[in-house]
Amino acid sequence: MSDNESSKGHVDEVEHVPETGHRSKMTEDNNWDQRVGFLMHDVSRLRRMVFDSFVKPLGVTRSRWWVLACLSRQDGMNQSDLASVLELGKAALGGLLDRLESSGLIERRADGNDRRAKRIYLTHRGHQTVKEMHHLSHQMSERVLEGLSHDQRLLLARMFALLKSNLLSIKQERGMDSI
């Protein structure tokens, strides 16, 4: 089996710019930018669907996962800061937190500096769920990236980081910081 093949299929089935520098159909197509946008959107949509199927046995939705993942990186956030990081309204986040709390995954504790505020913490069960979800996420990522070498994976990550940086810059230039 060649370097461009995997047990699941052939990498060359996707139109791309080969490393040899030869022009592919994508570079000759006047709508390449729309194609790239569609592919990014479609890959993102499919990844979300597959992720949901991987974590379904844990009973955690994608929106709940984002809250748990955020708290696993910075446990003890207040609701306002968490809403800001997740780009959610406080009311929408409040409902999510209620469901996570009733599931035993988080707990709200009084803020030592502000009696009106509550800090949000993962429970032991929440930490265990995050650990299981990281494991499932890793399994899924390995399947998604199947057929890509280590160097190709690094290049892909760098390219996505550049795209993200460009989009954040455009967002800032257009005054979209509050969106």
Automatic annotation (TrEMBL):
Tell me the organism.
Pseudomonas marginalis (Pseudomonas panacis)
| GO terms, molecular function | DNA binding; DNA-binding transcription factor activity
- What GO terms describe the biological role, i.e. biological process, of this protein? response to stress
For this entry, the protein name equals MarR family transcriptional regulator
Region Disordered: start and end of each range?
A: 1-28
Q: Which UniProt keywords apply?
A: DNA-binding, Transcription, Transcription regulation
Q: Which domain of life is it from?
A: Bacteria
- Pfam hit, one: MarR
